[in-house]
Design brief:
Length: 194
């Protein structure tokens, strides 16, 4: 199972060679086919449906009825009382990770979720997204998004799905040590024979 974010760390990763199930976010369909496409933004749902390079689209329950054939993003597996615990404040990336965790947990005897493109910031002071400056995305010089919600929400997924092994491919290790999360460099993902 591969969960794909749109951080710039995946810029030189060819995921077309990856034969297993893929869960991706937003505009990834522009470049690669994914089996499960998470689009929390209505504009991305519209663009994806016009393109058609995906298996199933998942979007927020609030507007699922506006889009024929869309599924609803998975429910959070826990209840919390902070702002990052509110499902409305979960974006496509954390929901993609949650979808991948559910699929791995429910359909794999030895559940492993590999993660690429989940960048937790950059040193350039601008938005870190492979699609920046394109339709439905921030301009290339936009300020970066604070990754604190993404980190918090991803940690919730890791902690809840403690029987799933998560492998995080990025040249910056995951910021918290969690027993079922292993950090590896992106070059190790490129070296995989899939």
């Amino acid at each position: 199972m591969l969960v794909i974010g749109n951080g710039e760390s995946r810029k030189h990763i060819d995921i077309s060679k990856y034969a297993k199930t893929k869960v991706g976010c937003n505009a990834i369909f522009r470049d690669f086919y994914v089996h499960h496409l998470i689009c929390c933004d209505r504009r991305m749902v519209i663009e994806a449906q016009e393109d058609g390079n995906y298996g199933v689209i998942y979007t927020r329950a609030d507007w699922q009825g506006q889009f024929e054939g869309c599924q609803v993003v998975p429910e959070l597996p826990y209840k919390g009382d902070t702002r990052p615990d509110d499902p409305w404040h979960w974006g496509s990336g954390p929901y993609a990770l949650l979808q991948g965790a559910y699929l791995a947990h429910n359909f794999m005897s030895d559940p492993v979720v590999e993660i690429i493109g989940f960048d937790i910031g950059n040193n350039e002071g601008t938005v870190n997204n492979i699609y920046k400056g394109t339709q439905n995305y921030d301009p290339v010089d936009a300020k970066p998004v604070d990754p604190s919600y993404w980190i918090y929400q991803s940690n919730k997924v890791f902690e809840y799905f403690d029987k799933v092994q998560f492998i995080y491919y990025n040249n910056t290790p995951w910021p918290k040590i969690i027993n079922n999360v292993t950090s590896k460099g992106t070059e190790e993902f490129n070296a995989l024979s899939t």
